[in-house]
C-alpha cells in the first residue's frame, strides 16, 4: 500500500506503483488531475468531504479527453482501457469534465464517492463492463449525475446513491443488464432515464434486461434542454419527470415511489412516469417491460403516460391517481 499525503502527487504514486497499485489518500485537499493507466488499481480516500480532489497542478499531455469534448475539458479521475479499477471514499469537485470518467474499462467500481459540481458529468462510465456505482452522491452537472453510456453488458449495479441538481439524475444510455436499486433522485429535470437511441458514429444501441426497483424519485422540477448552453443542452426539453423508459426491452420496474414531480418548463414527456418509443431516432418501441407495484402520486400534469403497445407489457398492482390511457389495466387509485 502506498500512502499519499496532501501536497504529495497522487499521479506519481500511481505511476511508481504500477499494476496492482493500492493507493491510500489521507484526509486533505489534493489539487491535480489523475489518470489511471494500469490494471488492478485501488484508489481509496478517507471519506467523502475528507479527501477532496480539485483542479490544479500539471496535467499529463496525453491524458484521455472526455468523449465528445475538446482537450481543454478535464476530468478529475480518468481511466481508459484498463481492468479492475476501484475508486472509493473521496470527493471530486469542480472539474470542467466529469468527476470520474471510465472508458472501455473492464470491471470498474465507484463507491462512496461524491461528485460535486463537475461541469459535464458526475460519474460517467462509457463502453465499459462490470460497472458498479454504489453509495455515491452526485450533483450539479450539465448532463448526468451518474451515467452508464454504451455499456451493452454493464453487468453491474447502481445502488444506494443520491443524485440531485442534474439534467439526468441516473442515465442508463444504451446500456443493458444492470440493476438500478434504492437510489434517491431529486431536484433534477428527470430522476432516472433509460434510453435506447442510436447516434450517428456511436456504437450499437439498446437497453434491455435491467431492473429498476425501490427508488425514491421526487421533486424533479428542473428544466433541461431549454438554453443552448444550459442544463441538458444536447437533448430535447425535459422537466418534471421521475422515471422514463424510452425504447427499452425487458426492463422490470418494481416498487418505486414517484411523487411530487412538476415541470418548470417545456417537456417532451407529459408525465412523471413515461414509457415511449424511440423508433423515430433509430431506437425501437418499448417492448416486454414489467411494471409492477409502483406508487405514483401527486405529480403534474399526469402520474403516468404509456405511449406503447400495452399488450406487450406486463402491468400489475400499481397505484396512481391520473394517467394516459385512462383505462390502462394494472393501475389502481
UniProtKB/TrEMBL annotation:
Classification via Pfam families: Beta_helix
Gene3D superfamilies for this protein:
Single-stranded right-handed beta-helix, Pectin lyase-like
> InterPro entries of this UniProt entry?
Beta_helix (IPR039448), PbH1 (IPR006626), Pectin_lyas_fold (IPR012334), Pectin_lyase_fold/virulence (IPR011050)
Q: Which SMART domains match?
A: PbH1
Q: Which residues form the Right handed beta helix domain?
A: 99-265
Q: What is this protein called?
A: Parallel beta-helix repeat protein
Amino acid at each position: 500500500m502506498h500512502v499519499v499525503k496532501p501536497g504529495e502527487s497522487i499521479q506519481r504514486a500511481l505511476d511508481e506503483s504500477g499494476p496492482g497499485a493500492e493507493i491510500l489518500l489521507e484526509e486533505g485537499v489534493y489539487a491535480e488531475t489523475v489518470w489511471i493507466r494500469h490494471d488492478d488499481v485501488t484508489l481509496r480516500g478517507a471519506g467523502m468531504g475528507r479527501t477532496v480532489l480539485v483542479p490544479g497542478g500539471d496535467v499529463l499531455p496525453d491524458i484521455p479527453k472526455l468523449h465528445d469534448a475538446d482537450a481543454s475539458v478535464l476530468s478529475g479521475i480518468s481511466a481508459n482501457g484498463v481492468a479492475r479499477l476501484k475508486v472509493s471514499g473521496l470527493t471530486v469537485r469542480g472539474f470542467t469534465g466529469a468527476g470520474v470518467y471510465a472508458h472501455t474499462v473492464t470491471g470498474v467500481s465507484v463507491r462512496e464517492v461524491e461528485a460535486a459540481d463537475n461541469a459535464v458529468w458526475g460519474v460517467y462510465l462509457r463502453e465499459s463492463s462490470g460497472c458498479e456505482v454504489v453509495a455515491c452522491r452526485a450533483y450539479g452537472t450539465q448532463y448526468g449525475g451518474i451515467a452508464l453510456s454504451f455499456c451493452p453488458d454493464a453487468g453491474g449495479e447502481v445502488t444506494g446513491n443520491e443524485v440531485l441538481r442534474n439534467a439526468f439524475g441516473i442515465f442508463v444510455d444504451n446500456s443493458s443488464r444492470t440493476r438500478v436499486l434504492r437510489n434517491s433522485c431529486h431536484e433534477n429535470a428527470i430522476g432516472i432515464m433509460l434510453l435506447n437511441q442510436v447516434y450517428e458514429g456511436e456504437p450499437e444501441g439498446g437497453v434491455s434486461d435491467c431492473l429498476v426497483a425501490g427508488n425514491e424519485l421526487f421533486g424533479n422540477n428542473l428544466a433541461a434542454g431549454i438554453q443552448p448552453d444550459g442544463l441538458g443542452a444536447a437533448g430535447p426539453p425535459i422537466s418534471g419527470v421521475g422515471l422514463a423508459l424510452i425504447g427499452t426491452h425487458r426492463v422490470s420496474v418494481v416498487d418505486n415511489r414517484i411523487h411530487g414531480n412538476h415541470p418548470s418548463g417545456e417537456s417532451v414527456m407529459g408525465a412523471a412516469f413515461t414509457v415511449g418509443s424511440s423508433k423515430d431516432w433509430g431506437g425501437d418501441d418499448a417492448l416486454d417491460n414489467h411494471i409492477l407495484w409502483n406508487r405514483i402520486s401527486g405529480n403534474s400534469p399526469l402520474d403516468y403516460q404509456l405511449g406503447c403497445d400495452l399488450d406487450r407489457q406486463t402491468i400489475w398492482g400499481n397505484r396512481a391517481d391520473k394517467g394516459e390511457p385512462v383505462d390502462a389495466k394494472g393501475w389502481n387509485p
